[in-house]
């Protein structure tokens, strides 16, 4: 029967994760509800016709009318159950829902078989004598399916480890949440691993002030593209891809048109941002999936293992962009302040770009590691007069410090050559900031600036550079779980990391 075929095909296409063609939507939206109404009318108001038929002399066998009524009730129950599932799960590509619908259909079809057997094909196929309860069965089940398809198609449910608020920021709860509706340019990614950024701690611990909770953080994501929107051209289904800290920009403004989309005034973060159309809060990478516009999804070169690539998508890019935009390269002396996640990648990338690179850390604790990473020199700011021998010799300093505690800006700036640049990417907590006086810049006429993430072009170039030069993030892997997330956040807050945590083993928590 055509109706069943269309139903099954719709179910199949939605279950496979493709958008439903318009003609199907119209079908479910218009025809099915009408047939449901007709069915309901027969089921409730013209049962007597059915009951008469079951007693007709032409019926070769007598089927107790109870049977059909029981079947009808079962179908109705399934209809209610299916609606309930749809509302609770809000997940049309969730196979559980479709299994329920199919089962309801099966029961309805069983009702038909009984009818054919009992009434004989001639009576059965003459429409006027279609039995009311079978009409009702099939209509109810289709109403359930049609509601789901017409209104809830493209609404899925992801699962993630969320924090409820800063008071309990180390308590991660595995919850289901609704992603933004699937757009034509969107990609659903099944997450394989996710790096742990200093920003995650700032966000959930309340250091950056109010956030939208419950929230799953994490924005150094690598996974597999499992569904691509109809207009996507940059990514293929099945490809290994990454997502960083930014997930949207308008792609239309002056900034978006000159590879400054990271500064677009409509930019949205991968987690904790409110999608303007729906009010849905974006959720990060400590989750089963992430849904992202293709512009912010990056193919990962084969040469880079996933856990090496993941931290590059925020930490790496945050370091790489200010380096390349400010002339890091052969013949330049570049300093990196703070040897954490961003800092160590800054060191690796500055080295790969050909500069002379100095690590500037608070103590000597990380000196041996920095030299292993390829640093040409190491300065510890706890040493007396640490800056004096290098005064006015640096061309560029990228500052990744995430706190201003004991931060002597003048001492750092004294390292810069005339008109050389200081670029801060660290985002310390609190609203005090740091005191800057005109005199501070006077002795060398240095420039003082800042940098946010980077562009798509820079991300792709960075990943290619890493692949070509064999750059390896220093990564400590932890299987994702509530306890391990609490542990790595605690350690990161204490600066006890070498040099980036990466959550792994997603299949154990979220399934294959
Ligand atoms: N601009 C952006 O687009 C962007 C993107 C991502 C993250 N961020 C921000 O960048 C900052 C760093 O992130 P991360 O993931 O690299 O953090 P991280 O791994 O914790 O590293 C931060 C490093 O800063 C240094 N540091 C900490 N307190 C300091 C202080 N009082 N004075 C001097 N140095 C200090 C430490 O290095 P030593 O032990 O070597 O001194 C520490 O390892 C965070 O604030 C984060 O929110 C910015
Ligand atoms: C960013 O904007 C500035 C100022 O308009 C422009 O000079 C620069 O070329 C743009 N793009 C990049 C990648 O820096
Ligand atoms: C620098 O000097 C100008 C004019 O003297 C003053 O208006 C400004 O506030 C000063 N800036 C800082 C950062 O102190
Ligand atoms: Zn980050
Ligand atoms: Zn824009």
From TrEMBL:
It holds the Pfam family ADH_N. One of its GO terms (biological process) is alcohol metabolic process. Its cofactor is Zn(2+). It catalyses: a primary alcohol + NADP(+) = an aldehyde + NADPH + H(+). This is alcohol dehydrogenase (NADP(+)). Residues 184-302 form the Alcohol dehydrogenase-like N-terminal domain. Gene3D superfamilies: Medium-chain alcohol dehydrogenases, catalytic domain, NAD(P)-binding Rossmann-like Domain. Belongs to the zinc-containing alcohol dehydrogenase family. The keyword Membrane applies. The keyword Phosphoprotein applies. The lineage of its organism: Eukaryota, Fungi, Dikarya, Ascomycota, Pezizomycotina. SUPFAM superfamilies: GroES-like (SSF50129), NAD(P)-binding Rossmann-fold domains (SSF51735). Keywords: Membrane, Metal-binding, NADP, Oxidoreductase, Phosphoprotein, Transmembrane, Transmembrane helix, Zinc. Its EC number is 1.1.1.2. Residues 19-155 form the DUF7704 domain. Residues 341-466 form the Alcohol dehydrogenase-like C-terminal domain. One of its GO terms (molecular function) is zinc ion binding. Homodimer. It comes from Cercophora scortea. The chain crosses the membrane at residues 22-42.
